[in-house]
Design goal:
The protein is an alpha+beta fold. The chain has four helices and ten strands. The longest helix is centred in the middle third of the chain and has 14 residues. The two termini are 16 Å apart.
């Protein structure tokens, strides 16, 4: 399965997701397709080990698991607590700006807002199938991150992409967990996240296919 979002360079949205056994997968065709779109041949797979026969250069990894709400990592001094609020679609530009600034890619904000505008316009309110919620975090009145929550049955899902620090990330995840009975979440790799661990975590790795990849793995 390949996800493609032209014009928005967001990790995992321009990648081909591979099975654990790549025998019979035409990796040369995967590489040619990505390059034909003007994109690097980015692939992803679950687990900490590279599937046998896959020649890649690892570029990132994330962890997927469950978050049920955790206490803040530290008692922040007065004026430094993180406050989270749910904002409407009219605040999408500001939300995207806060998310991309926390991620260190402020230039992506306008494109990300345009990419999400359509799905958010047709989505119903939180609690219904396919609904979305925009969460923004503030510290001392200044934005320190954003999170997009999506309804999934009785619970929801979120990718913690735009948090300036662990405190902001924990606050955003706790707020997202309050929107449903269960929260499935994706966190950055261990070297980028020092907050509480996820329950039932699985590693997902991303890598670039190396030149000369065999046609059948």
């Amino acid at each position: 399965m390949t996800l493609l979002t032209p014009g928005v360079n967001v990790l995992a949205l321009n990648a081909t997701f591979l099975p654990g056994d790549v025998t019979g997968v035409d990796l040369r065709d995967v590489q040619d397709w990505h390059e034909g779109q003007g994109l690097p041949p980015l692939v992803a797979w679950a687990g900490s080990e590279v599937p046998a026969g896959l020649k890649v250069k690892e570029v990132a990894r994330v962890r997927v698991g469950r978050w049920s709400g955790r206490p803040d990592p530290l008692d922040a001094p007065a004026g430094k607590q993180v406050m989270v609020e749910q904002v409407g679609r009219l605040n999408l530009s500001a939300w995207a700006g806060a998310l991309c600034a926390a991620h260190g890619t402020p230039g992506w904000a306008a494109g990300l807002a345009r990419q999400l505008a359509g799905p958010l316009e047709v989505a119903a309110g939180p609690g219904s199938a396919g609904a979305f919620a925009l969460l923004m975090a503030y510290r001392d009145g200044q934005p320190v991150g954003s999170l997009l929550w999506q309804a999934r049955g009785a619970g929801g899902a979120a990718h913690l992409w735009g948090a300036a620090d662990t405190g902001a990330g924990v606050a955003l995840l706790n707020a997202a967990a309050g929107l449903g009975a269960d929260l499935t979440v994706t966190l950055p790799g261990a070297g980028e996240w020092d907050g509480p661990p996820l329950a039932g975590a699985t590693s997902v790795q991303y890598g670039l296919l190396t030149p000369g990849t065999d046609a059948q793995g």
